[in-house]
Structure formats: C-alpha cells, structure tokens
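Cross-posted from the bioinformatics board.
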Amino acid sequence: EVQLLQSGGGLVQPGGSLRLSCAASGFTFGSYYLSWVRQAPGKGLEWVSAISGNGDTTYYADSVKGRFTISRDNSKNTLYLQMNSLRAEDTATYYCAKRLYGEGGPFEYWGQGTPVTVSS
Amino acid sequence: EVVMTQSPATLSMSPGERATLSCRASQSVKSNLAWYQQKRGQAPSLVIYAASTRATGIPARFSGSGSGTEFTLTISSLQSEDFGVYFCQQYNNWPLTFGGGTKVEIK
C-alpha cells in the first residue's frame, strides 16, 4: 500500500523558513517524480514544485522560484520542501503527491496535507 | 502557462440527477487531463485521467470525455458520496496547472 506521510508544517513569521518532509512507502521511491501542491484556505489547488526520481531535475512555480527548494533522499524514501523568505501568501495546506507513472501522469497518491501559516 | 477554466463554479443538484462539469484549457493539452474530487478537510483523490480513464475503484457512473482544449466530467446519477469539489488538471506541460474547481452541492 502506497503511503505518503507528511510532517513539518506550522506557524512561522514572514521572512522565516520552514522545511516540510514527506516519508514514502509502498512503491519504488527512486523511480517516480514527486511534487508539492498547495491549497490556500478556501481556495483551489496550486502546483508548487516537482523533482525527478534521481533528483537531477527540478521544476518550480514562478510564485516560489528562488525561495523554495525541493529535494529528496532516496536512501530514506523521503521528499523535502525547504521554504525560505516566507510570505503571507504562502499560507496554505501543502500536499506531497506521487504521479501515476514514473515521469508523468496525474497525481495518483497524495499525502495527508500539512498546514503552513505565515503570520506575525 | 496553460490556464484551466472550470464551469460552473457551483452545481446544485439532487441525488439521482445527472451532473455535467466542464473544463477548458487555454491551449491544447491533448488527452493529458485529470479530474480530482476533494471532500472537506481531505486531500484530493484521482477520479479520471487521460481524459476518460477511470482511476482504480471509481464507479462506472463517472465518465470523462474530450481532448485538446474542451473536457467534460459526467456523473450519471449523483450519490451522496459524490458531493464535494472537483478540480481538473493538465499534465501535458510544465507548470502543471489546475482549474479553479466546481463545487457539487446538495440542492
């Protein structure tokens, strides 16, 4: 059974940093692109970032480029999102997600979500 | 960036009725289109992918159609568990993009 277990959210001041983690099990971790998707309170879904199976290729939404860094540790089956220079508009529930196919397809599995609140 | 536009924003339906949700892409995404259902307080779950393929465990009352820029999700006879918000998403181009969602609520 595929599981994506998230941790690391919380309250942070504007300009601060936070690191999210997503521990995966139930599939060949290093064979799949993984992504972070966020959802502001009462709003829709916004894709944030993606990383290839070996970690060599990354993609970012313009809204987070230069501030967020996605990474993975295939020895620990864990995905990360380092968030720096946080702004109020980054307040959202963040989900990690696994795609159906190794390098593409829809998001087949999602983590449980972790809330991030940026406020003074 | 491919802009995904969903309509209507809200659909007020009664159980047993047929629901039709629309999704339009600002440029062709071929058949690389997915639909997700999200219930309050939960993560989204995959319903349809490749525009018309039901995800594992999704009942046959859900069907998807379309290609290129125009897509439709149809729920043939709404059940109580089908109410929630539905999002379309294109995965043909980076950045991956979602529509704004259609809320299917009980009339």
